[in-house]
Amino acid sequence: MSQMSAQAASQLASQPASARYGRAAIALHWLSAVLILGMLCLGFWMVGIPRNTPARGFTFNLHKSFGVLIGVLVIGRLLWRLYHPAPILPHAMPRWQAAAARANHFLLYACMVLQPLTGYLGSSFNKYGVKVFGVALPQWGWEDKALRAVFSTLHGWLAITLSLLIAVHVLAACSHLMRRDGIFQRMLPMRS
């Protein structure tokens, strides 16, 4: 372990428990991670299902149902974050890393809000609408192929952007894990 990472780990270990994420934040993070990764995989896979088949209808409705749930979960995460700010980063962390972490988190949250919103709006401009596990939600639009195409295209590009941001987030987490600087452990359910 380098002297810099040893100093960072020592500094983190000497910080109070408030320097870690709380149990609720950790639970929301990992639940969101599992659901979002599952939805991204399902979304990229389902576009290949042949049109006008029962499998396509079922899969799209499942995707929409979980998309609404994720949208509600993300709003919950944002509200939680307003009243429970993230723990500060160790002073030993280079400024560029701290700035990159903040930027990545901001963009992740932006995508996590816009992704379900564009999916919901895109579905509001077609005849099927959105059903959450069989319960129809109000449509904000009418059948309009052009508007549906706009929101569907945005939804697709956001999926790609979100996937890239998640990859950066995971690579950064792995980097912190390998350096043993204590940053990764702040989001684990139990102290390591």
Q: Distance between termini?
A: 17 Å
Low-confidence stretches: none
Number of strands: 2
Overall 3D shape? elongated
Q: Evaluate the radius of gyration.
A: 20 Å
Assembly of the depicted chains = single chain
How many H/I helical runs? 5
Order of helices and strands: HHHHEEH
State the helical fraction.
55-70%
Cross-sheet strand order for the largest sheet: 1-2
Biggest beta sheet attributes: 2 strands, antiparallel
**Average pLDDT reading:** 89
Keywords:
192 residues; mainly alpha; two-stranded antiparallel ribbon; 5 helices; 2 strands; 68% helix; 2% strand
Structure overview:
With 192 residues, the chain is an all-alpha fold. The mean pLDDT is 89. Helix 2 (23-46) runs antiparallel to helix 3. The protein has five helices and two strands; from the N terminus they run ααααββα. The chain is 68% helix and 2% strand. Strands 1-2 form a two-stranded antiparallel ribbon. The chain is elongated and about 55 Å long.
